[in-house]
Amino acid sequence: MEHDDRLQTNVLLMSAQPLLLAGMVAALGGRAGLNVFTSAPRGLAVDCPLAAHDVVVTDYDDGIRLALQRSAGDASGPRILVVTLQDREHDVRRAVECGVDGYLLQECELSELVRGVQTLAQGRRYLSASISQQVADSFTREPLTARESQVLGLLAEGLCNKMIGRQLAIQAGTVKSHVKGILTKLKAVSRTQAVSIAARRGLVSQRSHRSGISNPLHPAHRHAQVH
User: Fold this and answer.
1) Can you point out the beta strands (E) in 40-160?
2) Residue range 39-89, pLDDT digits in tens
3) How many Å apart are CA 45 and CA 60, to the nearest integer?
């Protein structure tokens, strides 16, 4: 019986990491029904038009870039599978909201990469088990308001209520109310713990967390509890 070419799935692998790219090629290259191609990131315009592929496997930033390009153009374009080290809740949710179809961590088994590609090729979404749980949990939590997010960002920089009030042109008492709301929503007992939780979830940058709250001499440590 002749093979039906219509059952073939064209898979484009994009990575700036040679070892990671080689591993993905090894995992997918010999699979029946998969035609595997490779490309350097951001080389698509010249080398490999997206329309020529059914599934694109790439890193976090390029995955979001390609998903946004697809949503702004041809909605029937290739499915996007991200393979990344970024496992924070905010990062995962951002990728999903931007239109990424699959999300795997680099620590996953090669068999899961194969399963992810095959699932996307069937027109379905694929998230690893841990990532699926993070996304589910994120939708059960009460989100921070825009102002609470601003206050949280300044808390992460180590500012006290008075300094935050000056930055945002609001009263210190209003800042205190926002801090209480932040602690409640993050289920934290102190400002320090709130910032730590927020950093783990990706709600504030790790850099701000390290430069502010992690310094025991910083003003934030003299205001660890809500005043």
Assistant:
1) 55-58, 79-84, 102-105, 126-127
2) 865 544 434 567 789 999 999 999 999 999 888 876 678 999 999 998 888
3) 19
Tens digit of each residue's pLDDT (9 = 90 or more) over 154-167: 999 999 999 999 99
* Chain centroid to CA 54: 22
What architecture is domain 5-139? 3-Layer(aba) Sandwich (3.40)
**79 pairs with which residues across the strands?**
55
Query: How many angstroms separate the first and last alpha carbons of the chain?
Result: 77
CA-to-CA distance for 156 and 175, rounded, in angstroms?
A: 14
Is 1.10.10.10 the CATH classification of the domain at 146-223?
A: yes
Is-contact 54 77, C-beta < 8 A? no
pTM of the complete model beyond 0.90: no
Contact, 137 vs 131, CB < 8 A? no
User: Residue 9 pairs with which residues in a beta bridge?
Assistant: 34
CA 32 to chain centroid: 31
